[in-house]
Structure formats: structure tokens, C-alpha cells
Amino acid sequence: ELRHRASPWQRNLGYPLAMLGLLALTAISVLIVCIHVLELLLDDAAMPQGIQDASLGQVSFSIFGSFGAALQVVLIFYLMVSSVVGFYSSPLFTQLLPERQDTPLTKIIGNCVSLLVLSSALPVFSRTLGITRFDLLGDFGRFNWLGNFYIVFLYNMGFAGLTTLCLVKRVSWAVQAELIRAFGEDG
Questions:
Q1: pLDDT, tens digit, for every residue of 151-187?
Q2: Membrane-spanning regions, if any (predicted)?
């Protein structure tokens, strides 16, 4: 219904650009995680516990300088938004989704707790995936399990594999639906 009410500019330019942006952010995050997996296999310093004594301003947290730092911020924001969307899209938590002007207090408290847990896990999540090495004033690099190679390696491999699978599934289904629609109308 929203697509039919959208202007031609939105339908023909806005939606495809937004989809390309999401596709690019997903591909970049998977690429960074794959590079991090290779670093894990080759160098012990790539573990999330690797840099603990670096003080802010003395060590660059990105090999690409300011552009890399900006990319890290964009990717972390993207991961935050996608985890919230994924949380509320899961069948178990769809009942928790707030309703406009009709949300009971228990549901509001449940949403606050859920968002607090998701936001608290985000620094550890991004650090474990190798997207950033910055600690955000927390001592997240001191968790004992971040030093376990197998946990970090499987976590990274799981993220890369499942994200790639979802990406291929969504894109291939969309392309398949468009091809069926295009050939169905002509045939």
C-alpha cells in the first residue's frame, strides 16, 4: 500500500538506492568479518583481547584513518538497526512490538529491557566480529571468553555464513520474483 502511494521518484530512485545501500553495507560487513577470520588464522594479535593498553589518541583504531573510522561508525549503526529490526521480526518477539497509543506499561518495560540488552551487547558484538577495536569507555576487551580462539572464530564464521546465506536468499528470491513477473506478463 505504501509502495503504491509513493511518488515515482521514490519508487524508481529512492527504493533501489536504499536497497543498494543496504546491500553494500551488508557486503562490507561480511567482507570485514572474512578479513578478520583470516587475521585470526594468521595472527594471534587479531583476537578481540589483543589491544588492551592502547590509550585514546595514541593508536589508530582503523588502518584506513578517518575514512575507516567513519566506516566503522556507519557499520556499527547499521548493525544496531539491523539487530533491532531482526529482533522485532522474529516470531517470538512480534507480540512485544509497541502499538501506537495502545501499549500497556508491561510491554513498554519489556521493550526497554530488550533495547537495553541489545545496546549493551553491541560493543562486544562489533569487537568480536573485528569491525572495531575501540572499547567505548567499557572494558569489554577483558572478558575471558574473548581470548578463546574457537569461540571467536566460530562466532565470526557463523556471522559471515548466516549473513551471506540470508543475503543470497533475499536477493535471489527478489530476482526470481521479478523474472517470473516479467516473463509471466509477456508469456
A1: 888 989 999 999 888 888 877 777 777 778 778 765 4
A2: 12-38, 63-88, 108-125, 145-168
